[in-house]
Amino acid sequence: MPFLLPDARLDAMLHEGAAYGDMTTLALDIGSRPGRAMLQAGRPMTVCCVEEAERLFLLAGCTVVRRFAASGCQLEQGSRILIAEGPAYALHFAYRTAQVLIEDAPGVAMRARRILLSARRGRHDIAVACIRKHLPDTKDAMLKAVLGAGCNAHRHDLSESIPVFAQHRALLGRTPPREWLARLRAAQPERRVVIEAESVMRQCCSPTPARTACNSTAWCRSR
């Protein structure tokens, strides 16, 4: 298990999805009736965030939650993931959020796992690092999915390391690389400097504005 999302984060998820409870349950006056919900794999999957799904049901007020898998496990179609028991208001308060979390995070985990297995057909000990291009406010769940798949995170945030992208170099104009490299090393002597380049000659040494693989983002130094 890579790590657990904190209760405060899970509470926010619950209240974002149903801030005032399930209106249908309230209107039908069935909130106190006992019930049971079961989540199971709809297809073969690398399951992820099942611990958080378990916790969501408990935070919502369920009395019993039985979990049958852990993040990173490979499940076949139809495999049980968890069963939650409790009053109807608690089940309906949590199940949609838990279901979406278990659907979305494994989607990322399965694709990351597929890339890792493909890479290891060429070299058995290779590591795969996934870049940080998640939707806003989904970083923790997506990071857990990547780690659960057996991959690593390229980096966790912008403050962690010093990668120099084409967008940075475009704003440096004709400043020689040795000068801005020396400036970076003097400013952050304990951190490793990494330069992203399509080719060393074109990207690292070119004084002209450059485009990255994302063609919608082109930077240049203003005159």
Automatic annotation (TrEMBL):
It comes from the Bacteria. Residues 108-200 form the Quinolinate phosphoribosyl transferase C-terminal domain. Residues 22-103 form the Quinolinate phosphoribosyl transferase N-terminal domain. It comes from Paracraurococcus lichenis. InterPro entries: Aldolase_TIM, NadC/ModD, Nicotinate_pribotase-like_C, Quinolinate_PRibosylTase_N_sf, Quinolinate_PRibosylTrfase_C, Quinolinate_PRibosylTrfase_N. Keywords: Glycosyltransferase, Transferase. Belongs to the NadC/ModD family. This is ModD protein. The keyword Magnesium does not apply. Pfam families: QRPTase_C, QRPTase_N. Gene3D superfamilies: Aldolase class I (3.20.20.70), Quinolinate phosphoribosyl transferase, N-terminal domain (3.90.1170.20).
